[in-house]
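User: Can you predict the 3D structure for this chain?
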Amino acid sequence: MDFHIKNHAEPVVDVAELARLGVGQMAYVKPLESDEVARLFPQAPKLQPGMRLFALLSASGEPILLTDNHDAAVANAWAHDLTTVSLH
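Assistant: Here is the predicted structure, written as structure tokens:
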């Protein structure tokens, strides 16, 4: 057998196209500490440091929801017909 491996100089999928994949269909749950909240949710009030929270983000990374309960984040996604994936 003869296998030919091609290395592409340019990405096969454009970064902007990749960001749009799954928008409106998929969301992901991201665990985060309260110290990180302001970066994703600038409108959120100041929170006690060290709290473990969960953000529900769209496939493109746009923030949807912030909660202290993983199951609540997943339930919110399901309520809006979004398939969820976890981000570690």
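The longest strand covers residues 26-33. The beta strands are 26-33, 52-58, 63-67, 83-86.
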